Amino acid sequence: MIERLSHCGISLPDSPGGTAGSPVPGLGVIVMAAGVGKRMKSKLAKVLHPVAGRPMILYIVELAERLAGAGVAVVVGHQAGQVRALLESRPAGDRRASRTAIVEQPEPLGTGHAVLQAKPVFPASQRERPSAFLILNGDTPLLTEATVRELLRVHETDTATVTILTAVLEDATGYGRIVRSNPVGDNRPGLLDCRVLKIVEDRDASPEEKRLREVNVGTYVVNGGFLFEALDKLQPHNAQREYYLTDIVSLAVERGLRVSTVTLSDPDEGLGVNTRGQLARAERAMRRQILERWLDAGVTVRDPATTWIDAGVVIGPDTVLYPNVALEGSTVIGEDCVIRSNVRLTDCVLGNRVEILEHCVFREARLEDDTTLGPFVHLRPGTVVRRKAKVGNFVEMKHTDLGEGSKANHLSYLGDTIVGKGVNIGAGTITCNYDGVRKYRTVIEDDVFVGSDTQLIAPVRVGRGAVVAAGTTVTQDVPADALAIARVPQVNREGWAARRRALPTGADREASHVKRPENSDRDTLHASRTTQGQPPVVKKNMALSKGKKTGKQGRR
After folding, report:
1. Domain range holding 306?
2. Cβ atoms 53, 312 nearer than 8 A
3. One domain for residues 320 and 255
């Protein structure tokens, strides 16, 4: 992802800047996360916007913690409380996170002023202070550890005072330009003299400097003895009246100190997120990287273009993902699973050989080995589906434990329920767990058969081996091996259907609007509308509606 360039674009041999994952001795890291992000046009601080399901600052802070051998300082400013809360909410057992200090920039006076706020975090004495500082931006989530280690290696190899990460862009608008000693506007590699002279911010650049395409990514390595000394000398002589961190480059050049660069071969890696468009670009790039990683790990993805996998997701080998699958948060999926189309899993844990059919939504659910679910299943937080259990179409479960080998195959709601092993939940079963004030639990023990269209009014317990007849409303505990049946008595009215068919047809009813003589026998009610043993009630000279005035008979 990088071109290994020293200060004049000379290729350097491949060599990792230390073992991947091991901290670099004597390295202090400063993360800048104080910016407002005005161009985002958002109420949320820029570094808190998520990329692939995680606030973007976490990518950089965790990178810093993997690299720093002499501590990390995160400089916060806008919405400092929210950024601090996010960083402090991480697991307390993370030793690296416990060594990270959070400092606040009280007012936005520029990047140089922001970095200066980290000075009290690190020892001041020459003997104890870090030998070098790595400075990172909190809005570059795509930056990789391999690139940063290469930057550190070049800094050490060149015995540089400042080493800058750069990129060459087709359109450099908005970025600080790298100005070298070869003619302005001509940054061709291989020229004899291509020393870095300064970094000029876009707002302060001349027309000629704005034509330059090599830009500052915002990642630096600076000698420990030089950084804070140079920051103390900064002056706000620029269009924004701010203290620019980039001005330390000019200070180094003026003192004859060496400035080196490493240039990214893929400019997207150094993408700083300042707009919604750049946020979308970072999202696409991050998701592409995540997909490639899981493809390399043995996961089959039928349609990568429509498959979304968050950064915190873990997937076992030989799992198959069909189109339009979204795996979010900290979801963990075992081996040999099949996730069909239009499935969304958030913070779920799946065992091995789990199959989820189309159109399912699960959140904070746990599915054990060999379970089958779907289509059209909704699992809400707190649901556990035990080994070899099955959940079918149009079933919703919340805070429910479905026992091993149990089945809820059709059109059911189970809320706040414990279901034992080998239970059959019939179609249309509902556990009525909420009385409008409190939630109550239903317990269904092992080997129970619950018939279709059953309502269980919690709190209630159905004993082991019991049978609940279809259509039953269960309001009391059911003993083990008992039959529970509670229905309205069935009544059969013989001949009723035939009499109903004999009622006037639509045509007859239309004809009834025609005026008839007063002695018409149609004034008598149809026999089928009378009660057996009682004479028909006939009302002669029935009051007519207002329609009588127009020659039309009204009907009641």
Report:
1. 294-484
2. yes
3. no
> Cα(269)–Cα(86) distance, rounded to whole angstroms?
24
d(CA 9, CA 188): 9
pLDDT of residue 191: 46
**CA dihedral in degrees (397, 402, 448, 387; nearest 10)?**
150
Q: Which pTM was predicted?
A: 0.82
In a domain, 282, yes or no: no
For residue range 79-128, list pLDDT tens digits in order.
Answer: 999 999 999 998 765 656 668 999 999 999 999 999 999 999 999 888 89
Out of 484, 500, 519, a domain closes at: 484
Instruction: Dig out the tokens for 324 from the structure.
Output: 């339009």
- For 176-190, what is each residue's pLDDT tens digit? 999 998 744 455 554
Show the tokens assigned to 182. 């070869």
- Total domains, the chain: 2
Give exposure, 36-65, as e/b (b: 16+ Cβ within 10 Å). ebeebeeeebbbbbebbbbbbbbbbbbbbb
DSSP state of 267: G
C-alpha to C-alpha distances, 191 to 252, 257, 513, nearest whole angstrom: 22, 20, 104
Q: How far apart are alpha carbons 530 and 535 in whole angstroms?
A: 7
Tens of pLDDT, residues 459-478: 999 999 999 999 999 999 99
DSSP letters spanning 75-127: EEBTBHHHHHHHHHTS-TT-HHHHTEEEEE-SS---HHHHHHTTGGGS--STT
- Phi, psi angles (nearest 5°) of residue 308: -110, 120
Token pair, residue 186, equals 């001509």
Q: Write the single-letter amino acid at 357.
A: L
Cα–Cα nearest to 411, from 399, 394, 424: 394
- CATH code of the domain covering residue 302: 2.160.10.10
Catalytic, out of 155, 237, 410, 526 = 410
Q: Which of 448, 482, 484 is nearest to 468 (CA)?
A: 484
Q: Is the dihedral of CA 199, 205, 208, 214 positive or negative?
A: positive
Q: Cis ω on the peptide bond leading into residue 459 (within 30° of 0)?
A: yes
Structure tokens at 428: 């249309």
Q: Domain end: 447, 468, 484, which one?
A: 484
Please, are residues 385 and 368 in contact by the beta-carbon 8 Å criterion? yes
* Same domain flag for 47 and 195: yes
The token pair that represents 65 in the structure block: 């913690």
Residue with tokens 């004049």: 8
How many angstroms separate the CA atoms of 85 and 83, rounded? Answer: 5
Is 359 known to be catalytic? no
Using DSSP, state whether 554 is helix, strand or coil.
coil
Is the CA virtual torsion 124, 128, 131, 133 positive or negative?
A: negative
228 contacts: CB under 8 Å, gap ≥ 6: 116, 119
Here the tokens at position 404 are 């091993």
Who wins on pLDDT, 175 or 337? Answer: 337
